[in-house]
Amino acid sequence: MCTSFVYQTKGENLFLSRTMDFGFTLDAKPVALPRGYTFESDVDGERYSGKYALIGAGRNLGKYILADGVNEHGLACASLYLPSEAVYSKNTEAGKTNLAPHEFLLWALSFCKDVSELREVLQTIHLVDQKVDLLGITTPLHWIFYDKSGNVAVIEPTDPSFKLTLKENPVGVMTNTPSLEWHFKNLTNYIDITPEQKTSAKFGKFEAHPFSQGGGTLGLPGGYTPPERFVRAAYLKEHIQEANNEQEGVTNVWYVLKSVTIPKGAVIKSDGTPDLTQYTSSMCVSSLTYYFTPYGNQRITGCKLDDDFINHSQTPYEWDVLQTEDILYKER
């Protein structure tokens, strides 16, 4: 599952945001990784020492596995599922950087400043079919990238030759299977959806009037399938009133995220377990602030990748986030 989208305020604050929809409990929390953070690939044991500090949501499983993040240069990335379409090599390739799919995001944010630099090095990357020990499966992922220049790109590993390419994403939304191009074509079915109210219409001598406001949104899909979430996010990010600054931008982003957030019990997988939004997050690539909300607490927590951490820290830092509802009670 999962939904991701980019958003820009009037004040040039750029955000990459996402829902993390998953059935298995991930226990992810905001974490900052310093320059020089070293990790060992599960594929071939090769060790990599990152050039750039970064912040995102992840979990320490001997090394940090991140689902999203932004680095010190403002390159942000979110990884989402692409089941039935993602393909990976069964073997390593000499002369290439061999990575498991779940390692690619960490590598990209550790070594690339922007989308242009990622494009230059992408052909040196070889993704190998390697399981995540915690899940017992190889994660079928695709990735959306966003940088300070406003460049949006998607990587979908669907080529049988295992060649990776960057796709342009003019819509700025990504969900799950089918492929990105299919979702673009599907938007054609919804070009009549509008924020404006519908007028009356005559049927013979009878004139029908709208029941109330919102008539222009009749037909906007409301389910949780990837196509429905894609259309809903694309419509809302396009029409939500423009924000003036970062704080207003966070508010707007969270209203869009709420529209695709899955409450526990609304979607049940074939094994009988619920698929739910375990957290929502947004990365401001302009201020290097990571915003995070867990399932059990609707408060937005902001964590900043500040200059002191970037220039001086040598160890990872994790933020504790309250997991139960934080309600402000008022006395009369």
UniProtKB/TrEMBL annotation:
Family annotation (CDD domains): Ntn_PVA
Superkingdom, natural source: Bacteria
Record key words, sorted: Hydrolase
- Asked if Hydrolase is a keyword of the record, the answer is yes
Q: Does the keyword Hydrolase apply?
A: yes
> Which InterPro entries does the entry mention?
CBAH/NAAA_C, Ntn_hydrolases_N, Peptidase_C59
One Pfam assignment:
CBAH
Residue ranges occupied by any Choloylglycine hydrolase/NAAA C-terminal domain in the UniProt entry: 2-312
Query: What's a Gene Ontology MF term here?
Result: hydrolase activity
Similarity section? Belongs to the peptidase C59 family.
Q: What is this protein called?
A: Choloylglycine hydrolase family protein
